[in-house]
Design a protein that fits this description.
By secondary structure, this protein is an alpha/beta fold. It has helices at residues 9-18, 28-39, 105-125, 146-156, 203-223, 272-293, 317-326, 340-345, 370-387, and strands spanning 44-49, 56-62, 69-75, 94-96, 99-101, 131-136, 160-165, 174-177, 179-188, 239-247, 257-266, 298-307, 332-334, 349-352, 367-369. It starts with 8 loop residues before the first helix and ends with a helix.
Amino acid sequence: MTPAPRLTARQILDRLVNFPTVSRDSNLALVDWVQEYLTGHGITVHRHWNEDRQKAALMAHAGPWVPGAVVLSGHSDVVPVDGQDWTTDPWTVVERDGRLYGRGTCDMKGFVALSIWALVEAAHRGVSTPLQLALSYDEEVGCTGAPPMIAAMQGLLPKGEAVIVGEPSRMGIVTGHKGGTGYHVHVKGYEVHSSLLPQGVSAIMEGARLIGWVNDRNAENAARVPGPVAATFNPPFTTLHVGMITGGTAHNITAADCRFAVEMRVVPGDSLADWETRFETEANRLDAAMKSVRPEAGVTLDRFFGVPALVPETEGAAETLARCLTGANTVGVVSYGTEAGQFQEAGYSAVVCGPGDIAQAHQPDEFLEVSEFHAGQQFMERLLEALA
């Protein structure tokens, strides 16, 4: 039998970007290719399917079948390119002026390509400490694919110890990030002519009360003296945000509907569950007040994501490993969320460390600097040496 070819990390990146794995679509073509490539090198691979079996997470293990693996974590999905002005084909890696252009090169198929390369190298070179890959789906729509994948890993693979989530951090070590949650809010009103305002319920005006509550909480949070962990973030407090709103029919009719989304970015030390309860309680209070005028009116909430914070660990295994591999003496925190907090909740030590600049994520002409990709490969080379 002809041995399976060993691709370079760049060749793997080219293949991954060719798959248009936008979150609204299936990722199975990419998963099929990765599974075939890894199994061709004798690596144990498992899948965990989503409910409609249109997407799957992939979990792989190279090295001895023992606990204590280093887990390389990435997501397969990318954001859409619709409406963006690209100067290159977003589904083909184009190298120009020291940059690798393409959707997902930065966020985060660059790291995934390096991880797949490292797993194959671990299988061929031999390692005494195992290496695992955890490749999720639906990260871009609220990190919803990672929890079932992590749960499935517990019965399929030996438990890993340190998780490196390769979101773009310019290869800096991130030991903490905010948690997040979000709600789609539908305020249902009752239409009357605006001259008869008290007899109707304006969904927009009532929705504004809930948005006013959001603004008041931001003011309160900003005025508080932050705790020692919160003080390391920018901004150093929990934030609540409404970015889009729609509703209404005409200026002289009380609005029948108002829709908006509320997202919260919660600092470690604040309880994500407590903030969800506070918001739901206020929405329920408004719902009851609206129904007292018209029983048809009210507020409906649809929680569309919830991501736990990554809490800085004391002498954590993942941070210790990342420091050794990067030579970094400093660590940092970020206000965006990742799957690292979900791994931490499941009992893993976790950090974020990956090539690329988060400022390039989701942008038209998204790119990963070639120097960053090379830095990521050097990181993987040092990891393989440490595992050997």
